[in-house]
Amino acid sequence: MTTAALQTVLTVPERFRGPVGIANGGWIAGTMAEALNGGRSAVEVTLHAPTPLETELRLEHLANSVTLSHGDGLLVEAIPVAEDLEGPGFVPFNDAARAEAGFVGLRMHPFAECFACGLREPGDGLRIFPGPVAGTDLVAAGWRVPFTVTGEEGVPASIVGAVLDCITGWAHFGPGESALLGRLTVQINGPIRPGGQYSVVARPTGRDGRKMYGQSAIYELDGTPVAAARATWIAPR
């Protein structure tokens, strides 16, 4: 097999933006996890540089990794990791949905156009609005899976990654605060049903200078985790 046979072209549609002009980091992470192993086991995705939209990018399968590049510049790298990710803790769907009223981004949102957590029209963006869960260090939102994000085989890993991504940032952010995703480790345990209802939950797990750490998960109504993630965010200087 030639090296060329291991390369494909990826173009990120404008719809899947995070900050203005660049791809949502979780969408990219899920896409890379799918490319590496179908998202069936944990994949660590490191974002080395912002991924441009509507641009032909090179997706390359190497011996034990997948990379995404633009010209000579490495944008993203995905590698397998031998671990099972833990979720932050289950919040029942109705409680998670009630928590959305406290979403900081409703008052001041640094990335209002974001596909995952932005204030876009229902059916266009995912509208994951995590708010604090009383008496805990958790943030949560209720996710009613729109049919507009499903494909022939159900909800793709790219969408799952986007859901798991932003909420880990909002576990830290106060009004006016923001950061960019630097790394997301993703594990998908089972399928997500179009039209289904899920709890999306995250908690902060630490902070080191400009770096903020968090974990997140998507839970079935009965508390079964169907996907989990661990994130590193980097605040601006």
Descriptive notes:
The protein is of the alpha+beta class and 237 residues long. It has three helices and eleven strands. It has helices spanning 25-37, 93-99, 157-170; strands spanning 7-10, 43-47, 57-61, 66-70, 73-80, 131-132, 139-144, 180-188, 197-208, 211-219, 225-234. Strand 6 (131-132) and strand 7 (139-144) form a beta hairpin.
Radius of gyration, in angstroms, nearest whole number: 17 Å
Q: Tell me, briefly, the overall form.
A: globular
> If classified by CATH, what would the architecture of the largest domain be?
Roll
Count of individual helical segments: 3
Strand content: 25-35%
Classify the fold: give the CATH topology of the largest domain: Thiol Ester Dehydrase, Chain A
CATH class of the largest domain: Alpha Beta
Count of discrete structural domains:
2
CA-CA gap between termini:
45 Å
- Given as residue ranges, the uncertain stretches (5+ residues, pLDDT < 50) are 1-5
Widest sheet: strand order?
A: 1-3-4-5-2-8-11-10-9-7-6
CATH superfamily of the largest domain: Hotdog Thioesterase
* Biggest sheet layout: 11 strands, antiparallel
